[in-house]
């Protein structure tokens, strides 16, 4: 993540482009996300994570939860359109359709108000 | 033991194991906390083996370790299907120990429970990636199924090409809405049931035999 600067009066939002994430390994992506979220930032991914990366994100998040310090994450993406599901061959070739905007934030600071296939509405509060 | 007999025995052990692995599948019971996973695991285990799998509770994260019940033999139409059922901790992306204080728990106990709960979720994810051959995804029919955890978990299961059945649990409750669950996951078969009351278990066992047999 770029330089960290405390902003007591606001909430920092980091928008990570697909291009930035493309060159990273799964664990580097997860670190990039969790380091930001643990600093109290909202992280927005242009292209989301693969199912396997989502699985590892949950696992790593769990290992970092600590009472009174970090309660975990809130994560939202648009529900996957059923008709647009990747074919078995695509998945076999590693061409999973992950291009879906994803919002991740600290569980105690972000609350999802509404979610459907075209809209994610979230309330973000300061620490 | 002669060389030939010893060789024959070890070949026999290997083939037994190969066939056993091929026939007997480990079916993970997954879902968010408090969906009734352990109640279902206990219902299945009691119906076919006479034993329970683990304690049930209305307090979230009662199950904090994956528990496997081996050799559950389910009989359908004269045939039998043998599976291992794996009851897993409810999956979530957040655990706050203060949530447990609402259930008359001391702070130390709540902190310990939250720590064990986080370990349990990590363990459940590990089982899902490595050690299950099929999934029963249990949802509480009185709750909104369109949550991120459900979307992610079903996506993870699909990405591994595991056979999956969606179980809409708690249909004994007045607010149950099975259609909402079926609409949320139209690509999978949804079976309604009450694991607590034992409602619709015949169809549950038919589907388990059909999908995982």
Task: Note the topology.
The complex is a heterodimer of chains A (127) and B (213).
Chain A: E1 13-16, H1 18-22, H2 26-38, E2 42-45, H3 51-64, E3 73-77, H4 88-92, E4 102-106, E5 110-115, E6 120-124
Helix pairs in contact in A: 2-3
Chain B: H1 3-23, E1 25-30, H2 37-48, E2 67-76, E3 79-87, H3 98-101, H4 107-130, E4 134-140, H5 148-159, E5 164-169, H6 178-184, E6 190-192, H7 201-212
Parallel strand pairs in B: 1-3, 1-4, 4-5, 5-6
Antiparallel strand pairs in B: 2-3
Task: Explain what the structure shows.
The complex is a heterodimer of chains A (127) and B (213). Chain A contains four helices and six strands. Chain A is globular, with a radius of gyration of 15 Å. The relative contact order of chain A is 0.19. In chain A, helix 2 crosses helix 3. With 127 residues, chain A is of the alpha+beta class. Chain A has a four-stranded mixed β-sheet with strand order 1-2-4-3. Chain A starts with 12 loop residues before the first strand and ends with a strand. Chain B contains seven helices and six strands, in the order αβαββααβαβαβα. Chain B has one domain: Rossmann fold, CATH 3.40.50.300. In chain B, 43% of the residues lie in helices and 19% in strands. In chain B, strand 4, helix 5 and strand 5 (164-169) form a beta-alpha-beta unit. In chain B, 40% of the residues are buried. Chain B has helices at residues 3-23, 37-48, 98-101, 107-130, 148-159, 178-184, 201-212, and strands at residues 25-30, 67-76, 79-87, 134-140, 164-169, 190-192. A six-stranded mixed β-sheet of chain B has the order 2-3-1-4-5-6, sandwiched between helices. The termini of chain B are far apart. The A-B interface holds A 50-52, 54-56, 58-59, 61-63, 65, 67, 71-77, 79-80, 82, 85, 88, 91, 96, 107-108, 112, 115-116 and B 91-97, 111, 114-115, 118-119, 121-122, 125-126, 128-129, 146, 148, 151-152, 155-156, 158-161, 186-187.
Strand order of the largest sheet of chain A: 1-2-4-3
Q: Main interface pair?
A: A-B, 32 and 30 residues
Number of H/I helices of chain B: 7
Strand tally of chain A: 6
The percentage helix of chain B is: 40-55%
CATH architectural name of chain B: 3-Layer(aba) Sandwich
Walk across the major sheet of chain B and give the strand order.
Answer: 2-3-1-4-5-6
CATH class of chain A: Alpha Beta
Number of domains of chain B: 1
Helix segment count of chain A?
4
**Structural class, from helix and strand content of chain B?**
alpha/beta
**Which bin fits the share of residues in helices of chain A?**
25-40%
Derived from helix and strand composition plus strand pairing, the structural class of chain A reads alpha+beta
Mean pLDDT of chain A: 83
What's the overall geometry of chain A? globular
